[in-house]
Design a protein that fits this description.
alpha/beta; 2 domains; six-stranded mixed beta sheet; two-stranded parallel ribbon; 13 helices; 10 strands
């Protein structure tokens, strides 16, 4: 029972035919009251201890007298199956933060930069948006100008771009979605470097032992921020604040394939414990 429970908690708790192991469990602040009704508290308490993906969920459950602990995320274990023995030189940007001011006149000040870097911006837009759309050109212009603060321009232009928000055309069928996700995991497992604003790209990369930098917005809503407690300590973070990038690690020169911090190792004990707990759980079920 790992993941975000639930965006719309109408079908909770699960029926009696499901035997759950609660690990990497997240309750969002937006549904905290529904998820922690008296009925639901009694259900969750049956399956203590509850492994929580984040410290916010730990605190929520402990405040109700439930035995809970920080387990980290199950995606940290993806290296168990998908760790690659080879590594290439590809660099991926996965949903990089780009601040677009709502006042269109603000973009006019970027026109000189756009014209100067039109070839590079067009190349990024084609890879990121699949063509030269207005949105693609605007976002690619702002991306190149912003991320040039920390990264070599050559790296930015030659990188691969992935959008988990669906810009690049995600399938709608669940089976096809799973295949797409597995494909990306395999791509990331061999990558030279991944830069992402998505924890469900950054966490798997740790487990895959792929170098990863996590970009985190300085200003987050509670809806978003409550997901991060405990997990942020696992990453090398670049703070993003409306077009300004600030590395939260020592930096000597522009970031590139040969110049970036090594991943932290705090994730390893969490992944090992998750694997052990799951293996013990399956053994218990097999033995009746």
């Amino acid at each position: 029972m790992n993941g975000w429970y639930m965006h719309n908690p109408l079908h909770w708790p699960p029926g009696p035919s499901i035997i759950p192991l609660f690990v990497s469990f997240h309750i969002n602040s937006s549904v905290k009251e529904q998820m922690l009704s008296e009925e639901n508290i009694q259900y969750i308490r049956k399956y203590e201890p509850i492994g929580c993906r984040d410290l916010f969920t730990v605190d929520c459950l402990k405040s109700k007298g439930i035995d809970a602990y920080f387990s980290g995320c199950m995606t940290l274990t993806l290296g168990y199956k998908y760790k690659s023995t080879t590594r290439n030189s590809k660099i991926y940007f996965v949903d990089p933060y780009v601040f677009v001011d709502r006042n269109p006149l603000v973009f006019l000040s970027k026109i000189p930069f756009l014209l100067k870097k039109l070839k590079q911006i067009s190349r990024i837009s084609r890879k990121w948006y699949g063509g030269l759309t207005v949105q693609g050109i605007i976002k690619s212009t702002l991306f190149l100008q912003t991320y040039s603060q920390l990264f070599n321009e050559e790296l930015l232009v030659s990188s691969e771009f992935v959008s988990q928000a669906g810009i690049s055309g995600w399938p709608k069928d669940d089976k096809d979605l799973l295949k797409k996700a597995e494909y990306l995991v395999k791509q990331f497992s061999q990558a030279g470097l991944v830069i992402t604003s998505r924890i469900h790209c950054a966490l798997p990369c740790l487990g895959l032992e792929t170098p990863v930098l996590f970009t985190m917005a300085k200003k987050n809503s509670e809806f978003s921020a409550c997901r991060f407690g405990g997990l942020m300590n696992l990453f090398n973070i670049i703070e993003y604040d409306e077009g300004i990038l600030k590395p939260m690690f020592k930096l000597n020169g522009k970031l590139n394939l040969a110049n970036h911090p090594e991943n932290k190792t705090k994730w390893r004990p969490l992944a090992n414990d998750l694997i052990k707990r799951c293996e013990n759980f399956f053994t218990m079920l097999e033995n009746g």
